[in-house]
Amino acid sequence: MNVTDTSTSDVPFSTLADTVLERLTATYAAAADPERAAAMRAYMKDVAPFLGLTSPDRRTLSRAAEAGLPRPAEADCTAIALRCWRLPEREYQYFAVDYLRRHARVCTSGFLPVARHLVSTKPWWDTVDALAAHVVGGLVAADRKLTLDMDAWIGDEDLWIARTALLHQLRYKERTDTERLFAYCLRQSGHPDFFVRKAIGWCLREYAKTDPEAVREFLARERGRFAPLSVREALKNIGGA
After folding, report:
1. Which residues, 6+ apart, have CB-to-CB distance to 46 below 8 Å?
2. Which residue from 146, 107, 153 is spatially nearest to 12, judged by alpha carbons?
3. Local structure of residue 156 (DSSP, 8 states)
4. Which run of H or E residues covers position 139?
5. Which among 56, 215, 231, 237 is least buried, having the fewest CB atoms inside 10 angstroms?
6. pTM over cut 0.90
């Protein structure tokens, strides 16, 4: 059974999560800016309400909330992420993503169902892309058996799950499974949604920094199957096929 079959309905007990959330909600709420929050919510297409914290202010407050606390275990990461995702304001999800990026190495393959839950809940590019490249990608790199889960995700009806599969190798460089990358792009080449088409171009453009000739040759053969957006993005830094 793939690890994506595991339930994520329960939040693990974590005294560290209790402390983090208590501090975080107090410091974030005290710094809220309702006027800025309204503008941020509109800019992010109403995916969630905002507190109105700028990124620099949010990171300063986050460091204060974490000051003096121990490094987390995987259960702590799970509890903090799931509890942040249950709070309405988007800044709490940003905190969770940043936290997971810093501590992703403590998470095992068993964290993948949690990552899937985060990707598919309140989904938008602002959280999905970082989770794909910095969390899911790290999990798969550490346990290559999880490529079977990515093979399932690329065909998922949820466009954000498919986008995550496309982007999970974004930081792999020379470690990229090129055959799988190209196969995933072809699998979703006819997808009607902008965010999937953009992701195709983005992952190819990123891999072109490592092997531009492979990307040129791939698109020379297959560009007729891709939307113009995907091709433009893929070739942006290396010229036409």
Report:
1. none
2. 107
3. -
4. helix 137-142
5. 56
6. yes
CB atoms near residue 229 (< 10 Å)? 13
Which residues are CB-contacts of 194 (< 8 A; sequence separation ≥ 6)? Answer: 229
Using DSSP's 3-state secondary structure scheme, residue 9 falls into coil
> In angstroms, what is the C-alpha Rg of the chain?
19
Q: Which two tokens stand for residue 183?
A: 């196969």
Total count of residues recorded for the chain: 241
Rounded to an integer, what distance in angstroms lies between the CA atom of residue 119 and that of residue 4? 13
On whether the CB atoms of residues 73 and 153 are closer than 8 A, the answer is no
Alpha carbon distances (Å) from 35 to 32, 40, 52, 59 = 9, 9, 7, 20
What one-letter code names the amino acid at 64? A
Distance between CA atoms of residues 241 and 231, nearest Å: 9
Tokens of 83: 């509890």
15-30 and 74-86 are packed helices; what angle lies between their axes, rounded to 10 degrees?
40
Residue 87: both structure tokens together: 């709070």
Per-residue b or e along 119-145, where b marks 16 or more CB atoms closer than 10 Å to that residue's CB: beebbbbebbbbbbbbbbbbbbeeeee
Tens of pLDDT, residue by residue over 72-115, are 999 999 999 999 999 999 999 999 999 999 999 999 999 999 99
- Structural tokens at position 175: 């470690």
Return d(Cα 79, Cα 85) in angstroms, integer: 10
- Alpha-carbon distance of 196 to 154, in angstroms, equals 10
CA angle 143, 148, 152 (to 5 degrees): 135
